[in-house]
């Protein structure tokens, strides 16, 4: 892997750390939206937007939802927007599958917290990149992930391959991850790795930590395989294209 630098240690308490990187050409093959499409690219980490206590509350939402299903392999996802939930080797629609029972699993407070957290992350990204928060739209997929050391059973479980979000999901312009558990305490492995030409830059997850970055190939990345324990996170992504925008999830 060559040289590895740690961009954010788990023990750090970072107000705002930002590294600017030249933008890739990925954005040129998509329609540009003035005042939103990245002209300044880079990656940031902050522990000052979401509290650990809020992260724990959000993790409990993920745990309750994922307890209804879960993949046979090491990676399970729950998408509150589309209702997608890993179940065995497939996905089911949580809302169709469980119907009114959903009201016993999630509360209005859960969805209000989710919305509040999403808005704060959106505002911070807008602030750091010098764009208007109202020019950004939540986009899909936005999902909880639960990863453990179980071997992969399908390609959906192979979360560790290097990828570029803008290439994988054309709508993504800004990607964020909110970590809901602690590296080296709740799980081993599972660090987030930016793969640069000269070196790798890793982010060690910590509950409440937000890692965010422009979605083009300037931020090629991967996640290390989880060696032990369970790693929870939520991926929340934004687009500049209103046609790819989605609303916040609604209960029932």
TrEMBL record:
GO terms for molecular function: dioxygenase activity; iron ion binding; L-ascorbic acid binding; oxidoreductase activity, acting on paired donors, with incorporation or reduction of molecular oxygen. The keyword Nucleus does not apply. GO terms for cellular component: membrane. Keywords: Dioxygenase, Iron, Metal-binding, Oxidoreductase. Its cofactor is L-ascorbate. Gene3D superfamilies: q2cbj1_9rhob like domain. Residues 140-242 form the Fe2OG dioxygenase domain. PANTHER family: 2-OXOGLUTARATE AND IRON-DEPENDENT OXYGENASE DOMAIN-CONTAINING PROTEIN 3, PROLYL HYDROXYLASE-RELATED. This is OGFD3 protein. It comes from Mohoua ochrocephala. The gene is Ogfod3.
